[in-house]
């Protein structure tokens, strides 16, 4: 309790910048926070036995959420690389209405390949970005030996889009910019959505964010999908991050929470259109190392129809080297309602602040595109 009070006091004494709203003030505080100090005392940690409440007079209490146990069979959960739903720990915030190896490898080795779209396409030819994994794996294997080497292409990767490819300039999806959505990720998403009560969820678009330790994700709302009744699913791997969940307006102070490796967040209902951001990725407290949950490989007794595959020792060495200083996040969305088509004419949109609308790309100190004042980039 003393830690939390100290953190609240630190936020309260942080001088607001001219025109700064409550969300931006908290974003700036956590962006500058010091790991291992009272600065993080008010961040909710869902992995703790009793998650603490966040700072502020209107702190949101952590409550256990009920899952639809009968919607996903143990076999289907196993196929997707998940524990049986009965073993999940699901939480909600009051006030707001093992098998990770496969998914890490897919994000780095498979999903980064063409025809999927990535941030490097803007500055490189298609031939140069043809197989980022093959071009990067030897660099990453030698990372420990030569820390002064140039960054590999995988380490320069900031985002990849899947399925309906999000247009960062128009902030829209369209029928003519589509490639097949990965079937394994679609199956995983359908099982998670069904367990949360969203049967019939269709995985139609994905944005993968690749965070370095100096990366942030700016304040934004995911409203570009045409059907907001379906949830947004978020899967985290690698180093932990601080996630800020705010309100409908930026002048509402957000709640801070940790996102650890293996965590899944489902934004649905009222929370589907709330402001959110990632101000900080936290380095491992024990130096460059992996979270302990990533030390266990896939079990040998996978079902014959499993969508997850064993990861070779050689491939996992590359993934390990990458994740020691990085975080990977997959977000999956349903774009269209059942029987809905994209509009023939562009939808009329009012002029608005691009930092709070649409999907926001990652930013880090070396990125070409800045998150707030240009196009919303990791």
From TrEMBL:
<dbReference type="GO" id="GO:0140078">
    <property type="term" value="F:class I DNA-(apurinic or apyrimidinic site) endonuclease activity"/>
</dbReference>
<feature type="binding site">
    <location>
        <position position="220"/>
    </location>
    <ligand>
        <name>Fe cation</name>
    </ligand>
</feature>
<dbReference type="GO" id="GO:0001890">
    <property type="term" value="P:placenta development"/>
</dbReference>
<keyword id="KW-0511">Multifunctional enzyme</keyword>
<dbReference type="GO" id="GO:0141131">
    <property type="term" value="F:DNA N6-methyladenine demethylase activity"/>
</dbReference>
<keyword id="KW-0692">RNA repair</keyword>
<keyword id="KW-0408">Iron</keyword>
<keyword id="KW-0223">Dioxygenase</keyword>
<protein>
    <recommendedName>
        <fullName>Nucleic acid dioxygenase ALKBH1</fullName>
        <ecNumber>1.14.11.33</ecNumber>
        <ecNumber>1.14.11.51</ecNumber>
        <ecNumber>4.2.99.18</ecNumber>
    </recommendedName>
</protein>
<feature type="region of interest" description="Disordered">
    <location>
        <begin position="344"/>
        <end position="378"/>
    </location>
</feature>
<keyword id="KW-0227">DNA damage</keyword>
<dbReference type="InterPro" id="IPR004574">
    <property type="entry name" value="Alkb"/>
</dbReference>
<keyword id="KW-0456">Lyase</keyword>
<keyword id="KW-0805">Transcription regulation</keyword>
<dbReference type="GO" id="GO:0002101">
    <property type="term" value="P:tRNA wobble cytosine modification"/>
</dbReference>
<feature type="domain" description="Fe2OG dioxygenase">
    <location>
        <begin position="202"/>
        <end position="336"/>
    </location>
</feature>
<dbReference type="InterPro" id="IPR005123">
    <property type="entry name" value="Oxoglu/Fe-dep_dioxygenase_dom"/>
</dbReference>
<dbReference type="GO" id="GO:0008198">
    <property type="term" value="F:ferrous iron binding"/>
</dbReference>
<dbReference type="GO" id="GO:0141137">
    <property type="term" value="P:positive regulation of gene expression, epigenetic"/>
</dbReference>
<keyword id="KW-0234">DNA repair</keyword>
<dbReference type="GO" id="GO:0000791">
    <property type="term" value="C:euchromatin"/>
</dbReference>
<dbReference type="GO" id="GO:0042245">
    <property type="term" value="P:RNA repair"/>
</dbReference>
<dbReference type="GO" id="GO:1990983">
    <property type="term" value="P:regulation of translational initiation by tRNA modification"/>
</dbReference>
<dbReference type="GO" id="GO:0006448">
    <property type="term" value="P:regulation of translational elongation"/>
</dbReference>
<dbReference type="GO" id="GO:0035513">
    <property type="term" value="P:oxidative RNA demethylation"/>
</dbReference>
<dbReference type="GO" id="GO:0005783">
    <property type="term" value="C:endoplasmic reticulum"/>
</dbReference>
<dbReference type="GO" id="GO:0043524">
    <property type="term" value="P:negative regulation of neuron apoptotic process"/>
</dbReference>
<dbReference type="GO" id="GO:0035516">
    <property type="term" value="F:broad specificity oxidative DNA demethylase activity"/>
</dbReference>
<keyword id="KW-0539">Nucleus</keyword>
<dbReference type="GO" id="GO:0000049">
    <property type="term" value="F:tRNA binding"/>
</dbReference>
<keyword id="KW-0560">Oxidoreductase</keyword>
<feature type="binding site">
    <location>
        <position position="222"/>
    </location>
    <ligand>
        <name>Fe cation</name>
    </ligand>
</feature>
<dbReference type="GO" id="GO:0001701">
    <property type="term" value="P:in utero embryonic development"/>
</dbReference>
<dbReference type="InterPro" id="IPR027450">
    <property type="entry name" value="AlkB-like"/>
</dbReference>
<dbReference type="GO" id="GO:0005739">
    <property type="term" value="C:mitochondrion"/>
</dbReference>
<dbReference type="GO" id="GO:0001764">
    <property type="term" value="P:neuron migration"/>
</dbReference>
<keyword id="KW-0810">Translation regulation</keyword>
<dbReference type="GO" id="GO:1990984">
    <property type="term" value="F:tRNA demethylase activity"/>
</dbReference>
<dbReference type="GO" id="GO:0048589">
    <property type="term" value="P:developmental growth"/>
</dbReference>
<keyword id="KW-0479">Metal-binding</keyword>
<comment type="subunit">
    <text>Monomer. Interacts with DNAJB6.</text>
</comment>
<dbReference type="GO" id="GO:0006281">
    <property type="term" value="P:DNA repair"/>
</dbReference>
